[in-house]
Design goal:
This protein is an alpha/beta fold. The protein is 46% helix and 14% strand.
Length: 204
């Protein structure tokens, strides 16, 4: 894993026991960033803390909130959304709608924070090989999509951290998903809904 450099010195990562969160913590640790990690599964969180304890990005208990960032006039916020936030998603309607809220909120916050020294970025990954796929759609979902559309958690984490450090409002890892987001704005919403519905039906 290549060691990157970031402008921030501390980080708070939620959902850190697996997938993108786990990969992000490892990259932050390798870069020497003091990181607070939060997760629902205590055993995995303890194991991660033990594994990284002797590395130069020690896991520390810190508190990262917007108010102190504004007081310092320095800080970075990364909210995990999804490429699904850019379109309706039949069979995943609530998930897509929730992520649409996250993306919209973060983009608005990004503009509100302009000139304050604090940045907000929405991470919008596409299909990523994490435990979320198994929990939400079943273990056979990976076989239903071609390998070219899949990203690894580490790829997503690496690009997300780069885009956050650059102060970008949106981080969309993978050229295929960048192309999708760019072209989706030109497709009539009625056609987008229909295409999404047909795709969902074919994989049920």
């Amino acid at each position: 894993m290549a060691t990157a450099r970031y402008p921030f010195t501390t980080a708070l990562v939620t959902g850190a026991s697996s997938g993108i969160g786990d990969a992000m913590v490892r990259r932050l640790a390798a870069a020497g960033i003091a990181t607070t990690v939060v997760a629902r599964r205590k055993k995995r969180l303890s194991a991660l803390a033990t594994e990284l304890a002797d590395q130069p990005g020690p896991t520390l208990l810190t508190r990262a909130v917007l108010t102190p960032m504004l007081e310092r006039r320095r800080g970075w916020i990364l909210n995990v959304s999804s490429v699904a936030s850019f379109q309706p998603a039949p069979q995943l309607a609530v998930y897509a709608a929730t992520k649409a809220y996250v993306t919209s909120l973060t983009e608005a916050l990004h503009e509100e924070l302009r000139g304050t020294g604090v940045q907000a970025t929405a991470l919008c990954p596409g299909l990523t090989r994490t435990e979320f796929i198994e929990v939400s759609r079943g273990t056979d979902v990976a076989d239903r999509y071609p390998g070219a559309v899949w990203l690894s958690a580490d790829e997503v984490a690496a690009e997300a951290l780069r885009d956050t450090a650059r102060g970008r409002a949106l981080s969309v890892p993978g050229f295929q998903y960048k192309a999708f987001v760019t072209t989706s704005g030109f497709i009539p919403r009625s056609l987008m809904r229909r295409m999404s519905g047909l795709a969902a039906a074919s994989y049920r």
